[in-house]
Write a structure and sequence with these properties.
The protein has about 290 residues and is of the alpha/beta class. Helix content is about 40%, strand content about 15%.
C-alpha cells in the first residue's frame, strides 16, 4: 500500500488528473500514515491542508473557496470508523471534488465480490474523479497493493509515471499465485459465507466487550485502557491466555487513549471470540 500511495499522490498533486489544474489537497487528520507520509512531497507541487476527522463542513468550505480540490482519506480507518462515502460523493457532485480513498482495511469484507467498503457503495462504477487504493494483504489474504481506476487515461498515466511502477522489480511468483487463488475464491459463494461468519463474530464480540465501535459492521475494535503501560500490561494478560491483541498508544492514538486493537476474522470460532473477550475483561479489571 505504501508503494501505491507513493505513486498516486504526487501525480494527483501535479494536476495531470484534474484537468491540468493543481488541486488543493486536503488530508483527513486520521488518514493512514502511508498517506500522511506523502504530505511533504505533495506540498512541493500544490497546497496541502489537513482537516478534522470526517469534517464535511470544513471540506465543503474549502471546495467553495477553491476551483479544484482533492480529498485524501481512508475508507475504513485502521483504529475503527469509516469515511462518509455517501456524503463525500454528494460533495463530489456539487463541487467536482476529486476523491482518493485508501480502502486497505475494507477490501474483501464488503460487496458481492469483496470489492470493499468504498467501491461497494459506487455500483455505477468509478469515473475520472475517483481513485480507490486497496490492499492485496489484510482481508484479501495475499500481499501487495492495487489501485482501482476509472478511466483508461488514468491507467496510461500510472503505467508511464507512477514511481513504484517505474522502478519496481518483478513480483515474486508466490505472491502472484496467492493473489490469483484469492481472486478465484472471491468469485464463489465461499466469500459470502465468510463475510457472514465475520459479521456473526463481530456481533458476538460486541455483546461481550463494550467499545465505541459496538454495532458497526466494520471489524476493527479498540478497547480503551488509558495509560500506555497499562495497555501493554493488558496485552500481556491477553497473550498469556493464548491470544494476540495489539497494544496501541501515542502517536497511533491520542495521549491518554492507549488500549487494545482487536480484529476478529472469519477464520476464528465463536469459542475463540468468547475466550479472548473473557481475557480482555480480566485484563481491564486489573
Amino acid at each position: 500500500m505504501l508503494a501505491a500511495n507513493l505513486s498516486a499522490l504526487p501525480l494527483i498533486a501535479s494536476g495531470i488528473l484534474t484537468g491540468g489544474k493543481k488541486p488543493v489537497m486536503v488530508f483527513d487528520r486520521l488518514a493512514h500514515a502511508t498517506l500522511a507520509f506523502n504530505k511533504p512531497v505533495v506540498a512541493e507541487e500544490c497546497e496541502v491542508r489537513t482537516i478534522g476527522h470526517n469534517d464535511l463542513q470544513a471540506l465543503e468550505d474549502i471546495c467553495r473557496q477553491n476551483e479544484t480540490v482533492a480529498y485524501v482519506c481512508d475508507g475504513v480507518y485502521s483504529m475503527g470508523g469509516c469515511a462518509p462515502i455517501k456524503e463525500l460523493r454528494e460533495l463530489q457532485e456539487r463541487y467536482g471534488l476529486f476523491l482518493y480513498i485508501d480502502d486497505a482495511h475494507g477490501i474483501s469484507l464488503f460487496g458481492e465480490r469483496g470489492e470493499g467498503f468504498a467501491r461497494s457503495q459506487m455500483p455505477e462504477g468509478l469515473e475520472e474523479r475517483t481513485i480507490i487504493a486497496a490492499s492485496l494483504g489484510k482481508g484479501f489474504g495475499a500481499s501487495g497493493g492495487m489501485l482501482m481506476l476509472g478511466t483508461s487515461f488514468q491507467e496510461e498515466i500510472f503505467r508511464r509515471f507512477a514511481l513504484a511502477h517505474a522502478f519496481s522489480a518483478s513480483i515474486n511468483v508466490a505472491a502472484i499465485g496467492a493473489a490469483l487463488a484469492s481472486e478465484a475464491i472471491h468469485r464463489t459463494p465461499e466469500l459470502g459465507v465468510r463475510q457472514r461468519a465475520l459479521a456473526e463474530y463481530i456481533s458476538l464480540f460486541d455483546e461481550l466487550v463494550p467499545t465505541a465501535q459496538a454495532g458497526s459492521r466494520l471489524p476493527i475494535r479498540t478497547v480503551v485502557v488509558g495509560d500506555e503501560l497499562a495497555a501493554i500490561g493488558a496485552a500481556r494478560v491477553v497473550l498469556d491466555a493464548g491470544y494476540y491483541a495489539s497494544a496501541i498508544f501515542f502517536p497511533t492514538v491520542a495521549k491518554g487513549r492507549a488500549g487494545l486493537r482487536i480484529c476478529p476474522t472469519a477464520s476464528h470460532t465463536a469459542a475463540e471470540v468468547r475466550e479472548v473477550a473473557a481475557a480482555i475483561n480480566r485484563a481491564l479489571k486489573g
